[in-house]
Amino acid sequence: MSDSKYGAILLRNQLKELLKNPVDGFSVGLVDDSDIYKWNVMIEGPADTPYEGGFFPAILDFPKEYPSKPPKMTFTTKGFWHPNVHSDGKVCISILHEAKEDQFNQQEKMSEKWRPILGVEAVLLSVVSLLSDPNFESPANIDASVMLKKDPKEYRKKIRQLVRRSQDAL
Asked: pLDDT digits over 73-117, tens only?
């Protein structure tokens, strides 16, 4: 069986399981029923964080080499603001990085990076957790990181506006 067929079967099984037994904090579905490699994700803002009450859509894009290579996740909410999310919405978290040496990112441990044994649920739970606990050692959005450290009150205000916008979009 080719890697891409195995990946497609694995993704179908994981989607089926997540639809049958939903996990608190997110929901999933396909962007297009004919493409198992592109998923719609709705992340719920975690309780006791500035993101609480928000609903943040994202796309989870799986490579044809899945599970050998990690998916990419991008928030589609305009202006999503978080130290570990690029301005274009792309999520920067170790679990979504290939397990190979990176000369520009020495603080990231290989054990924290993508491994084929990890599933979609682990990825999404890690992203939900990241909203509660940003990684300041490797910020993707320097401005958000600086604001959260130096002016947490202003950061919280900005996130609460984002939450209200996300609620209005429903």
From this structure: 999 999 999 999 999 999 998 877 766 655 555 555 655 666 667
Q: How far apart are CA 96 and CA 147, in angstroms?
A: 25
Query: What is the C-alpha separation between 122 and 116, in angstroms, rounded?
Result: 11
Catalytic residue among 28, 58, 73, 92: 92
User: pTM surpassing 0.85?
Assistant: yes
Helix, strand, coil % in the chain, rounded to nearest 5:
35, 15, 50
- Helices marked H in 79-151: 120-132, 142-150
Selection from 62, 143, 60 nearest residue 134 by Cα: 143
Interhelix angle 3-20/120-132, rounded to 10 degrees, is: 60
Residue 144 known to be catalytic: no
Domains, the chain, ranges and CATH? Answer: 3-100+111-127+136-168 (3.10.110.10)
